[in-house]
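Team,

Forwarding the record for the chain on the shared tracking sheet. I've put the sequence and predicted structure together so nobody has to dig through attachments.
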Amino acid sequence: MTAYVCRFCAASLQHSFCDLGMSPLSNAYLTAEQLGRAERFYPLHAYVCERCWLVQLPEHETPEHIFAQDYAYFSCYSDSWLAHCRAYTEQIAVRFGLGTASQVVEIASNDGYLLQYFKERGVSVLGIEPAANVAAVAEKKGIPTRVQFFGRDTAQALANNSLKADLLLGNNVLAHVPDLNDFVSGMKILLKSDGVITLEFPHLLRLMRGNQFDTIYHEHYSYFSFTTVERVFAAHGLTLFDVQELPTHGGSLRVFGRHAENPIPAVQGAVAALRNVETEAGLNGLGAYAAFAEQVKEAKFQLLEFLIAAKRAGKRVWSYGAPAKGNTLLNYCGIRSDLVEGTVDRSPYKQGRLLPGTHIPIYAPEKLNEVRPDYVLILPWNLKEEIIHWGAHIRGWGGRFVVPIPRVQVLS
């Protein structure tokens, strides 16, 4: 086995968490012209560090390649996510007294999906986003955006220009960082002495309990428990003083941080409470991690059995969505267009392309009205309520929705 070391504590990685075989980059959508070319696949094998309990993938591809000019993920195409971000803005502005004299900086600001709400309140904003094509969309919304990766150098350059953050935030970015120590130390540099950090990321405990193995893909380098994140931040002089459990992305955490040398705000009781929950769940021992691989295999078997039975019965199966998690699921299960004929997605940046690895074609959502499938497999299962509401009309021709995680369920 190739020797890998933990990206936080540098301990040797000896213990497997989940081996999902070989998989392409999950956002590497293909054009028809690319089908005749070789497609890169990489080992999708997650390990757990026995010293700090960070679950992680080795870095098989650089962020510079992953977040290239034609990066296809845009946050603005989920109504429920936008509502979540608007609510966050209102809550945080009130809790920490953010106003026209405040500076908000978002790391991995994507298309300005969140900063637009701070801008509406007259707050000064700055986005930092490595994907140039996505950043261009934010700029068109009037969101100042720096096209670069975040770390010590970026933070120091901003600080040298007298820009520091009253609120430094990042949603679903921490998992995307291969050099974790560089990233967190950069946050320390950019944060004002009395500033606040908020980060949101999928909670490892919820991933394990919900069998959410499809959220493992190459664009995500790490998977975090609260206990591990707290340890990482403490190593760089930052204290997590509060934490909230959120329903987003199948179960996420929102952590609140400040400089360790600043005793305000005080550490809330939720911090110790969640740390205890994780300890009781066994996240400080190998047993819980070793058990995860078996439930992943069972989910694969169930989905294949359902799809094969549907095909043998003459049923047509399509899917909704072209998310990264869906590409992990389909590639791990070996599902191609013989079992799932096509998929639909709201993002025009994905329509007309094909899913990586499986080569299932992507259409606009209206395509479902034309093909009238018997089953629609919801790949972004974390948005199932929003999707089912949108697609209530498919019941008119007898169509039914199916969710694959944590187990196959046909919804009435």
